[in-house]
Known about the structure:
- By secondary structure, the protein is α/β, with parallel strands linked by helices.
- It has one domain: 3-Layer(aba) Sandwich (Protocatechuate 4,5-dioxygenase, Chain B).
- It is built from ten helices and eleven strands.
- It is globular and about 50 Å long.
- The N terminus is likely disordered.
Amino acid sequence: MASISLQVPVLFYALISIAFNKSLAMSSGEIVGAFVLPHGGIAFDPSHFNTSNQTARQEAWLIHDAAQAVGEIISSLKPDLILLSTPHGIADLEKFQFYLNPKGRGSADTDNYVGPYRLAVDLDSISSQDLVRELGKLGEHVSGLSAFGPPGGAADPFPLRWGEVIPLSFVRSLETMKVAVISQPSRRYNDSVQMIPELLHLGAVLHDQLLLLQKRIVVLISADLAHTHDKNGPYGYSTAAEPFDQACSLWASTLDEAALVSTAAQYVNKALSCGYTGLVMLHGLMKEASLDNWMPKVYGNYHPSYYGMMVASFLRK
């Protein structure tokens, strides 16, 4: 009888533990992967890349093929929600903005291509409003934007451009998913280094709030790297471009925090990268879940034109 009396409490607590874990699983979601995709038109359609440099043309196709492969991976994960960070959206001076319309629609002219490429997506206005509310309560600099109508009720779609359209265009079966867009504030142009602590903190808090949405989630960072690789480009040439891109690649292949927030930060003001703040925010998000839980992989990092482009994935172990 003594052995029975000992087994009963053990069985009781085991059942309680199972019930608790099941309840926990039902009350929280899962971030199944994070990705970095470029938004340059060369990546979208290299066949219209106007260059006689065969190496540059080959690099453009490598980036395109890598982005296609990552798009397939995202589709295979079957997310309920894609959280897309864009540096070229409709932006506030100070605050990170979520798009609150039920639909999004827009176009992107690719490099040397008359186009444009058009895309329509379902935006998760309910989850976006939840994130705005809860992140605001926690003191984060976030707000929401609704276009041509009330939040969640506007009949017209929210306008999208290349920063959203091109990365999302690589995702197959997009019609089966919803998208939440967070637009980086325009102070990123001059204050990206000063924003690093804020971005890391926002990423960590965002991680926890995303889990509470009870959805299967993919995080997608729309990002190009240094824009100063070519003296004939619109921003000229800087010696900071190459080391900046290499530091970002080192981070994306190892999750070495110093490579991103120390080394790359030394060059970003002269490298002129539109995607840097999104990368730092993503690092804060992954760090909150423990960096050991992610498998980083860089598929390509090239600059066939004046700007650098990187394709990377971070899958959960």
